Amino acid sequence: MLGHLRQIARARTVEEMFERSVAALTEIGLSRVYFQGPIGSDRSLTRNTHSYGFPEVWAQTYEVRWQVHDPFPDAAARYPGPLYWHRLPSSIVLNADELAYLDFLKQNGMEQGLCILLYGNATRVGFLGASPGPDGPAVETVDRELFQFISMAAFTRYCQLVTMDPELPVALSGRELDVLYWMAQGRSNGAIAEVLGISQDTVNTYVKRVFAKMNVFDRTSAVMKGVQHGLVIVSDPISELVAEQMREKRHTGS
Fold first, then answer.
1. pLDDT at res. 101
2. pLDDT tens per residue, range 27-45
3. Closest CA to 232 of 218, 219, 217
4. Which residues of 10-29 are buried (b: 16+ CB within 10 A; e: fewer)?
5. Is it the case that residue 165 has pLDDT exceeding 60?
6. Strands 125-131 and 114-119
7. Cα–Cα distance for residue pair 156/36, rounded to 1 Å
8. How far is the C-alpha of 208 from the C-alpha of 216, rounded, in Å?
9. What secondary structure does DSSP assign to 4-44, as a single string?
């Protein structure tokens, strides 16, 4: 396992880091893995998700249907260390949609798993959840400490990689810069769509393009890299005025 941890620490790209982290987690019996960030109290704000090994039905429906009803990141935020997602503390009361998600997992053989909230520099917060595959071990037999070590090593290396990257690999388009600007002002994808007069699906596509071009996997890292390269400023004092003017212009049709 020490070799796996070294490989994660020596990863040269974010994608390489994810691949090595999945290999390490698979080694301890967790072959289905999903990374998510940034994590905040408002689930309606876009959380970028990258998954490995999950059934196709989960991969196709999670972001469009289940992500806002996934209770595990919020639950992990309330308790330190790894948490069994099939044995949530009794103090966590789930609503009907959250219970429906748990039922969906059970129907597809994913009712058991481990999850953990992860903390990095510059107030970055991420989440990692993992479960055994169809032929994997019972999750209670998985070494929870190794799960925690691997998860922490992965997120630490991720934060290092997105911070140390000195150059943007590809220039952003004008619309991608618009989206990045409003991300820097703390706007959700839905709010950005309203300001720019485009659909939220279109904004989601632009956000994914920005992430890909900037070689990051979360909004905080994208904004930080944009600030470092002089592409945006955070909390622009005129941003709210501009947004209001754009909304009024669109609503009046002028």
1. 94
2. 999 999 998 876 766 666 5
3. 219
4. ebeebeebbebbbebbbebb
5. no
6. antiparallel
7. 14
8. 10
9. HHHHHHT-SSHHHHHHHHHHHHHHTT--EEEEEE---S-TT
Tokens at 117, concatenated? 């909230």
What global pTM score does this model have? 0.68
Q: Are 139 and 132 in contact (CB under 8 A)?
A: yes
Residue with tokens 């059970």: 106
Instruction: Identify the structural domains of the chain with CATH numbers, from first to last.
Output: 2-164 (3.30.450.80), 174-252 (1.10.10.10)
Retrieve residue 152's tokens.
């922490």
- Of 73, 142, 141, 133, which Cα lies nearest the Cα of 101? 73
Joined tokens for residue 6: 């070294």
pLDDT at 160 over 80: yes
Q: Where are the alpha helices (DSSP H) in the chain?
A: 2-9, 14-27, 56-61, 72-78, 96-107, 144-164, 174-184, 189-196, 200-214, 219-228, 239-252
Rg, Å, the chain Cα set: 19
Q: Which residue matches tokens 């037999």?
A: 141
CA dihedral 58, 59, 60, 64 (to 10 degrees): 90
Residue type, 155: F
Residue in the structure block whose two tokens are 């972001």: 63
